[in-house]
Design a protein that fits this description.
Layout lengths: L1 E3 L2 H10 L28 E3 L6 H10 L6 E2 L1 E8 L6 E4 L5 E8 L5 E11 L4 E5 L6 E5 L9 E2 L3 E2 L2 E8 L7 E11 L19 E2 L15 E6 L3 E8 L9 E4 L7 H5 L1 E5 L14 E4 L1 E7 L4 E6 L13 E3 L8 E5 L7 E5 L4 E3 L9 E6 L13 E3 L4 E9 L7 E7 H6 L9 H4 L8 E2 L14 E3 L3 E3 L4 E5 L7 E5 L4 E2 L2 E2 L5 E5 L3 E10 L4 E13 L8 E6 L2 E6 L6 E5 L5 E2 L5 E3 L4 E3 L2 E6 L2 E6 L3 E3 L12 E3 L6 E5 L7 E7 L4 E6 L4 E5 L6 E9 L2 E9 L2
Parallel strand pairs: 2-6, 22-28, 32-39
Antiparallel strand pairs: 1-2, 3-16, 4-13, 5-6, 6-12, 7-10, 7-11, 7-13, 8-9, 8-12, 14-24, 15-16, 15-18, 16-17, 17-21, 18-19, 20-21, 22-30, 23-24, 23-27, 25-26, 26-29, 27-28, 28-29, 31-33, 33-37, 34-36, 34-38, 35-37, 38-39, 40-41, 41-44, 42-43, 42-46, 45-48, 46-47, 49-50, 50-53, 51-52, 51-54, ...
Length: 696
């Protein structure tokens, strides 16, 4: 590791860094030492080894398909502290400052893990980018944690750590940096970032599809685990309704006390408008493990501090009845992206997933809107009453083929196992009330009476509604809304959320008055609303079919981006794609076009794609019987003794492998638990896949 003091690096950092205005995790104000007192060019930088991250990036994307945790950063182990790194300086006012710069070439962002963070009262620390467009801190003795501290990422290739000690202080305490984590996927940085660019079929939570979940979304948190991994979790209510900050996620995301202590929880990480750019984040570092169970893929942690009212926290309710919901919703962070929503209208199915407890998962056969991706693991599955019924383990769903996702059952995690450290009941029903369902909870609703509300976005498309969500506090018994000029409805008396349309745009004055039977409080806010009425996108296309090759012509109007789903599990973002189908059949083709917050979707008539079959192609890849009790036949057209049959569990574990010896080959899987398995036929002619359901 080379320690450098280089103006060249500092200049490069300034060129590459861009604005990333984000409020940091819970901190205590103040500001770093002014550059006039301690110039930037005099900062001592330590450079991380240059490493080719392209292979790691490719592997991270591929490995996140089944278990949907996402590795996004490479960890450089270090041992930096104020005694062996950086530089101390005495300021003219008597304060002592320790400053260390860290640089890692081509990083989208950097984050730090401290294995020691024990400051004495009076000492404070900041972490910031060299251009100071992003500053987190100050952090002081109130942030102390015996197991260290994790911090949210800062964009760009360089960060500066600065410790400020008062003149009269002799012992500032102890801090030590154990890891510098280099973001190689761009899930936090600005340069060609993935943000806003997860799978094109994903839908922002502030699009119309999320209108009825504007309160629910505030429970969803993006998990940054040990500086290198991403998952999703949710604040969850308990029967005491005391606002204890429990977060529910998957075991394969947070497995032990160390990981819980080294997790950063990011709130409000969402696009402010449909198809828009991201909003600011708020974060809390560190948590305490309360319960976890590998065979249930469940983990419950308690945050190190209660989310501030500015975080707009909301604690989701739950349903522990072991029966399938009529429809389901997922809210999550695919590929670490802004908060997205996916929906399934079909009831989930109870199944057994390999390596987990029997019948302990819900199977989502197909998402009708959106999908999950790496980084979505641990996210909640909600029923039609916005209560948690599951949490995501993984699966095969992706844009173009949004099928087969698996959620650990909330009902199984409740009390299937006795120890409090392996169940949810002990923590979420501390009074042993025995209730089977619980609604969500606003932890600030029981404070002194006050009116408060938010609008989900100020920019919608023609015909769409603005959503007003109540965040009032106190024992509210009455509501009186006035939505301003041109509103429909003009007034409302319920809590909401309220969907309101306007006949014209401009600045609107919205008033909410709440009462508790003894007094009333009101709040008036002005919003400048915009309704896009021109250049609305309209999806349209035609096609020319030549055997199995189809040439598509995009005739859409006012489209700035295109997303094609060809009905066979493949997609494209080209304007006029040429598609070669691998088999005969009828294929529903969908074109989704976008322009700012507006979009339009067209699914055209089934296409007739056909070509005369060669004799060797006439046999199809068949599995029967399916479902099966364990013994089944695979009928295939692959050359005998030139390929392999491989069978995997949904989490990617190989459970069976044998050579292809017959065109109709008998397979026995009596040794595996009931559940859904992926069948892969591999030979010199390529790879074919299918699925087999093993019944109890």
């Amino acid at each position: 590791m080379n320690r450098i003091r280089s103006n060249r690096i500092i200049v490069a950092v300034f060129i590459l860094l861009q604005s990333f205005a984000v409020k940091g995790q819970i901190s205590f104000g103040g500001k770093p030492v002014d550059y006039s007192a301690y110039p930037l060019e005099e900062t001592r930088f330590t450079q991380m080894p240059e490493t080719d991250m392209s292979v790691k990036a490719k592997s991270a994307r591929e490995s996140s398909v089944r278990l949907k945790i996402l590795e996004f950063a490479h960890a450089f182990p270090v041992q930096f502290n104020p005694y062996n790194s950086g530089e101390w300086r005495m300021l003219p006012d008597g304060r002592k400052v320790w400053r260390l710069g860290v640089y890692s070439k081509d990083a989208y962002s950097l984050n730090l893990l401290f294995d020691k963070f024990l400051l004495n009262p009076g000492a404070s620390m900041f972490i910031y980018t060299p251009d100071r467009k992003k500053i987190i801190g100050s952090f002081n003795h109130n942030n102390n944690h015996e197991q260290g501290l994790a911090f949210e990422p800062l964009p760009g290739e360089a960060v500066i750590i600065e410790l400020i000690v008062p003149e009269i202080m002799e012992d500032f305490g102890e801090i030590g940096i154990a890891s510098v984590n280099h973001d190689y996927l761009g899930v936090f940085g600005e340069k060609t970032s993935m943000n806003g660019n997860s799978g094109r079929c994903n839908v922002d939570i502030n699009c119309p599809e999320g209108n009825n979940h504007q309160m629910d979304k505030n429970s969803i948190v993006k998990l940054l685990i040990e500086g290198s991994f991403l998952c999703t979790g949710a604040l969850i209510n308990n029967t005491s309704q005391d606002g204890k900050p429990y977060v529910l996620t998957a075991h394969h995301c947070i497995e032990n006390h160390t990981m819980a202590a080294k997790t950063v929880f990011l709130f409000g990480y969402e696009a402010t408008t449909c198809n828009g750019t991201g909003s600011s984040t708020k974060s809390i570092s560190n948590s305490t493990l309360r319960a976890t169970k590998k065979s249930l893929d469940m983990t419950l942690v308690e945050l190190s501090s209660i989310p501030d009212i500015s975080y707009r926290p909301y604690y989701l309710g739950w349903n522990r009845v072991n029966s399938p919901a009529t429809s389901t919703v997922g809210i999550h962070h695919p590929n670490g992206d802004w908060k997205k929503i996916c929906k399934a209208t079909e009831s989930p199915v109870s199944v057994t997933v390999q390596d987990y407890s029997s019948q302990a998962h819900w199977w989502i056969r197909r998402w009708d809107i959106g999908t999950t991706e790496g980084g979505s693991s641990g996210s909640p599955l909600l029923d039609s009453n916005s209560r948690i019924v599951g949490l995501l383990t993984g699966g095969f769903a992706q844009c173009g083929d949004p099928v087969d996702d698996y959620y650990a059952k909330f009902s199984s995690a409740w009390d299937l196992f006795t120890p409090a450290s392996e169940q949810l009941k002990a923590w979420l029903d501390p009074g042993n009330t025995g209730v089977t369902t619980l609604n969500g909870f606003n932890p600030y609703q029981n404070q002194v009476l006050a009116a408060d509300f938010e609008i989900h976005t100020t920019n919608v498309c023609q015909g769409e509604a603005f959503v007003f969500t109540d965040f009032s506090r106190g024992n509210v018994t009455s509501y009186s809304w006035n939505f301003g000029a041109g509103a429909s409805p003009a007034n409302a008396t319920g809590k909401g959320p309220h969907l309101v349309q306007y006949s014209n745009i401009g600045t609107k004055t919205i008033t909410l008055e709440v009462g508790d039977g003894k007094s009333t409080k009101s709040l008036q806010r002005n919003f400048t609303l915009d309704i896009k009425t021109t250049n609305l996108p309209v999806a349209d296309f035609t096609e020319e079919i030549n055997l199995r090759q189809v040439t598509f012509k995009n005739n859409s109007q006012n489209s700035l981006s295109n997303y094609w789903d060809f009905g066979d599990g493949t997609t494209s973002i080209l304007t006029n794609p040429v598609k070669n189908y691998n088999s005969n059949g009828d294929f529903p083709v969908t074109l989704w076009v976008r322009n700012g917050p507006c979009s339009d979707i067209l699914t055209r008539t089934i296409l007739k794609v056909s070509v005369p079959l060669q004799e060797s192609e006439k046999k199809e890849f068949r599995i029967y019987p399916n479902p099966s009790s364990g013994d089944f036949t695979i009928e295939n057209d692959l050359p005998v003794n030139e390929g392999y049959i491989e069978i995997f569990s949904v989490n990617g574990s190989l459970v069976h492998s044998e050579k292809i010896t017959h065109t109709a080959q008998r397979i026995s899987l009596n040794h595996v638990p009931a559940g859904v398995y992926l069948v892969r036929m591999r030979s010199g002619k390529g790879i074919k896949t299918g699925k087999i359901i093993i019944t109890p």
